[in-house]
Design goal:
Blueprint lengths: L3 E7 L3 E8 L4 E8 L11 E2 L1 H20 L6 E8 L5 E3 L9 E2 L8 H11 L1 H8 L10 H10 L1 H6 L2 E3 L1 H10 L3 E3 H4 L6 E2 L4 E2 L1 H7 L7 E3 L4 E4 L2 H7 L6 E3 L2 E2 H8 L7 E6 L3 E7 L9 E4 L6 E6 L4 H11 L1 H10 L3 H11 L8 E3 L17 E3 L7 H25 L6 E5 L6 H11 L3 E4 L5 H12 L15 E5 L6 H33 L3
Parallel strand pairs: 1-5, 5-15, 9-12, 16-22, 22-23
Antiparallel strand pairs: 1-2, 2-3, 4-7, 6-8, 10-11, 13-14, 16-17, 17-19, 18-19, 20-21, 23-24
Helix pairs in contact: 1-6, 2-4, 10-16, 11-12, 11-14, 12-13, 13-14, 14-15
Length: 516
Amino acid sequence: MKGYVIGVDVGTYSSKGVLVALDGTIKASYSVNHGVEFPKPGFVEQDADKVWWHDFVLIVKALIEKGSIDPRDILAVGISGIGPCVLPIDGEGKPLRRGILYGIDTRATEEIEFLEQKIGVDKIVEITGRPKLGSQAAGPKILWIKRHEPDVFQKTRWFLTSQSYIVFRLTSKAVIDIYSAAGYAPLFDIFRRQWVPEIVNEILPIECLPDVFWSYEIVGYVTKEAAVDTGLVEGTPVVAGTTDAAAEAISVGMSKMGDMMLMVGSSTFFVVRVPELTRSQNFWVSNFVEPNFFTVLGGTSTAGSLTKWFRDQFGEVEIEKEKTQGKDAYESLAELAEKSTVGSKGLIVLPYFAGERTPIHDPASKGIIFGLTLAHTKGDIYRSVLEGVSYSIRHNLQEMSKEGVVPRRILLAGGVLKNPLWVKLIADITGFEMNIPNQLIGASFGDAFLAAMGIKEFESVQEIEKWVKVKSRVQPNVSWKRIYDIKYQVYLELYKRTKDLMEIIHKLQDELSNIS
């Protein structure tokens, strides 16, 4: 079969699309930057039309133009996005508010507590495979809308996540893939792969939830209206798509048992293939994008979002250099970090600047920069930020191992690959070899592969090996193990000893945010 598939991924701070031939050759790629709104502490939102749909339209038009192709040669479209997000739309498909983002949005703490008490831990474990809901769960955020924005709730016809909204705009079909639906805890039974009526009906009418499909299944076709908006041909097949982390995992070649995709982008996300669907104490478990492919998942709340915060707040010189000399500000900061010493002269950062997801599941946790003296430099602090995120990765890997989940191969993905120092730090601090794929385009490449599966070009995700190989490996340097081990123990103790204080400050910050 001749032709192309398109994959588009909507990320936290940027969207990227790729036009791919069926042999895996990239014909064209295009990316768009966008922002995130923080209306209150703990609230993280994006405009579905101005960001998600806008980016998709812009990217598809650019891919068609850059690739110099006839849109009739586009055989299918695959889409991924940040998630699980919560976007209420009305019967005409119009968003009723900005989309509420994934686990970095921590607004629904009271709703989490309410649902855990009402449903019970045993029932939650039975249907979700996990004992805690946490800020990643979409169910409590729907309940938050019901409690705090009743007018919006009453007008809602469907609750969708990010890629679901784009699929809806393309096809007029309200759908979600099985992998993403698991993020709508506690509404979705991951073992039966269906919504749970007795729980759903406690929060919302079950017909307000989208239909569920595997990620590679064709769920609809580009409508006449969407064709006019995007430049795609009416009738082009569209697959269900998935959450960005799953698409990213495909894009780096995650296929074998024990493979782990470690995505270090705006946040950190872990996806590891396991033999069966089990239950976990600290992590999420899920079906993947096709039948008989099971995963254990984890995710922190910050990574690149923390380095972006640092750049924006303290990188004025580096930002100005980028404007005047064209040198990337992050590259300049990385050079400062290189000049620091191993261990950042004793500094330790708790990277809980947006609460934390796995393994502590604490939306009230706060960031800490510990050990500061007058001798420390900006480079020391920036290096400690990179180290702090690396410790959070080690913490997740350690807790996974306690549950019998130890990756045989870690495939590294995300913006971290632009920073060799950070890659080295992750390897050194975790003690794991990092495998770098030859294809670094990201989640959109995985979306394109899912689109190719949808038109039967491939039968299984395992065939991604025809598109992706490991290019290089970064080995841990054992020379610094003692230093990193000491700092890691302090890292763990910092949270334990300040957790109560963090809760006090969390409540105070919430109170202060309401003072005009």
